[in-house]
Design brief:
The chain is built from 19 helices and 28 strands. Among the domains are: 31-42 and 59-189, Rossmann fold (3-Layer(aba) Sandwich); 483-620, 2-Layer Sandwich (GMP Synthetase, Chain A, domain 3), CATH 3.30.300.30. The strands form nine sheets. Strands 2, 18, 19, 20, 21 and 22 form a six-stranded antiparallel sheet that branches. Strands 7-6-8-9 form a four-stranded parallel sheet, sandwiched between helices. The protein is globular and about 80 Å long. Strand 12, helix 9 (251-263) and strand 13 form a beta-alpha-beta unit. By secondary structure, the protein is α/β, with parallel strands linked by helices.
Length: 623
């Protein structure tokens, strides 16, 4: 039986802040209770939709899902899975992922995800570290990686395949397992029981297995659901729903999955983050809210401008962006009681551009989306305001694998673009003397596999730098280990400048350099589609570019370099001369996960990029 207590949480004193609100804390029960509870409370409620081979969506009721979970869990029991055993899963986001997750918990097991893009070497390390009793691969590609990894690890385990009907076979094998066995295993679980091992993305060093409990997820799900209640409400009298496409190996996707099952919010699954592949699923599913990383919001915005440019309407799009930003800034301030509503002229212009531009932006997200949650890295504040003006409120938050997802989030009606919001109920934030962000709360993990505690006196040192304002809103200013210190002694946090430069339509990825150098430089890769559209309408005689300001390792039109220099000048307007980007260099290729330059959650692997482009870095500092 899943039971919560309501706890009154008082604001902590300086230097920490915590939510001034009651919060829910689980006292007994586990994640395995959720499907059973839902089936008992509302058996006919549609809680998931399963994509069929013809592209349509088949509804799955609460009772139907609970029955599938039980049947699969019995199969795991029949296959020899014991309480506490670990099950390795390497798969893209799909229905069977969620099914296996809850089935593993129902069998008393611990599911250990592996990113579907992982190499055999990465999977081998996880197998050696966690010692699974079973491995599950999505398809032939994943099976090949896991087969190699299992052989190298010398830890033989049975390998099942989802594309070979693994869940159906498990259900058949478990037909003779009595219900009482599952009831017994569920009864043994508590909020303190280990639910999963999620391995960090490994931006630096070898990934570490974070020990997350059932209570971590239940605490986070209940309190995020309460805080973000408008996100989870019906749209046009239709029940709320979301399409999951983030990798469920990532803690944010996993936490949203749990929150939706907790709240009986309909879930669909899509296997790709690529906008072109995702759009058909968004259109057919009709989600009311989305959870994504900034890359998706940036890409939709960039593609919108590219399409407008192709119709020779780039000027209209740019004016619509300006109106949306100004309108949203005024409306958000008014909601927070910090100013009047947008003036009539601005509201009129906003209504005009809604028909021309904003409706198409919403259509690119499926048509019904009115809310979105962004995590993984920071979102440009002007981009957040643009989407708000276009009718999609994006709530930016901050958290880590070690905190089971968001520890802070911008709440509805009290958003502050540029911040990641105040702590969620039950969480607390403290700023260390050196500026490092420290986190605490019920969603804080129980240390790393192998015994490393991870937290000191209940506070986890994140490695991120930040500041708190007077109302407890957190702003992330950089990474402690990524601070560039120029030869002149100036400390520069690269992430905010990278975010601003990457927001330009022509820029795909960028990385700032300058540690021990006389000034800051930038390596950038280009969005080829955006470049083609730009050149189709670029001036015949672009302004001359000082070769010391911009260069390229590949052939690039002068107009593109001139545009990049202008973009850099705009970015530099927000910082001092000592912190500004002095030179920019276009490099070959792109920073991609396939090349080992991005993590599966699309974070830069800085050292890998620096090594891959070391000659380009040196070129930035040639006189």
């Amino acid at each position: 039986m899943l039971t919560y207590r309501l706890v009154s949480l008082l604001a902590s004193t300086y230097p920490g802040r915590s939510s001034k609100a009651d919060w829910l804390s689980p006292t007994q029960g586990s994640l395995a209770d959720l499907p059973v509870r839902n089936a008992a409370a509302d058996p006919t409620a549609v809680v998931l939709s399963r994509r069929t081979p013809d592209g349509s969506w088949r509804p799955v009721t609460a009772a139907g899902f609970a029955a599938e979970v039980a049947a699969t869990a019995k199969g795991l029991v029949s296959a020899g899975i014991r309480p506490g055993d670990r099950i390795l899963l390497m798969s893209r986001t799909r229905y069977e992922w969620t099914l296996l997750d809850f089935a593993a918990w129902t069998a008393g097991a611990v599911l250990v995800p592996v990113y579907p893009s992982s190499s055999a070497e990465q999977a081998e390390w996880i197998i050696r570290d966690c010692g699974p009793a079973m491995a599950v691969a999505e398809d032939a590609t994943a099976a090949e990686v896991l087969t190699i990894a299992i052989a190298r690890s010398r830890h033989p385990v049975p390998l099942w395949r989802l594309d070979h009907e693994a869940t159906a076979e498990l259900a058949n094998r478990g037909a003779t397992v009595p219900d009482a066995e599952l009831d017994s295993r569920r009864a043994e679980l508590s909020p303190d029981s280990l639910a999963t091992l999620i391995y960090t993305s490994g931006t630096t060093g070898r990934p570490k297995g974070c020990r997350l409990t059932h209570g971590n997820f239940l605490d986070e799900a209940a309190n995020c659901h309460a805080l973000l209640q408008p996100v989870f409400e019906a749209v046009s009298d239709e029940p709320p729903s979301t399409l999951l496409f983030l990798p469920l190996a990532h803690v944010l996707g996993r936490m949203i999955q749990v929150t939706c099952v907790y709240a009986r919010i309909r879930i669909g699954h899509s296997p790709s983050l690529a906008p072109d592949e995702l759009r058909p699923d968004l259109a057919s599913f009709g989600a009311s809210f989305l959870v994504a990383v900034p890359y998706l919001f940036e890409k939709i915005h960039h593609l919108g401008r590219v399409e407008a440019q192709g119709r020779k309407a780039a000027g209209v799009y740019d004016r619509a962006v300006d109106v949306a930003v100004r309108y949203a800034r005024a409306e958000l301030a008014a909601q927070a009681g910090q100013g009047p509503r947008a003036p009539l002229a601005l509201r009129t212009a906003h209504a005009f551009y809604d028909a021309l531009v904003y409706r198409k932006v919403r259509q690119a997200m499926g048509g019904r989306v009115r809310h979105a949650i962004s995590g993984g890295s920071s979102l440009n504040p002007d981009l957040l305001l643009f989407y708000a003006g276009a009718g999609v409120q994006i709530y930016e938050g901050y958290g880590l694998t070690e905190t089971t997802g968001p520890s802070t989030v911008n709440p509805p009606l009290r958003q502050r673009p540029g911040t990641v919001g105040p702590p969620v109920p039950g969480s607390a934030v403290r700023i260390a003397p050196d500026g490092e962000v420290l986190l605490s709360g019920g969603q804080l993990f129980r240390g790393y596999l192998g015994g490393e505690p991870g937290a000191t006196d209940g506070w986890f040192a994140t490695g991120d730098l930040g500041r708190l304002d007077g109302d407890g809103y957190l702003t992330i200013t950089g990474r402690k280990k990524e601070i560039l210190v120029t030869s002149g002694g100036k400390n520069v946090s690269p992430a905010p400048l990278e975010d601003r430069l990457r927001a330009h339509p022509l820029v795909s990825q960028c990385l700032l350099v300058g540690n021990g150098r006389p000034y800051v430089g930038a390596l950038v890769t280009l969005d080829r589609e955006a470049v083609a559209q730009f050149l189709a309408h670029a001036p015949a005689d672009p302004p001359a570019v000082d070769p010391r300001a911009a260069g390229s390792a590949v052939p690039v039109e002068p107009a593109v370099l001139a545009e990049l220099v202008a973009a850099v000048e705009q970015v530099n307007a927000s910082v001092s001369r000592a912190e500004s980007i002095r030179r920019v260099r276009v490099v070959a290729g792109d920073f991609t996960e396939d090349r080992g330059l991005l993590t599966p959650s699309l974070k830069l692997r800085r050292q890998a990029v620096l090594q891959a482009y070391r000659k380009d870095v040196e070129a930035l500092y040639r006189s």
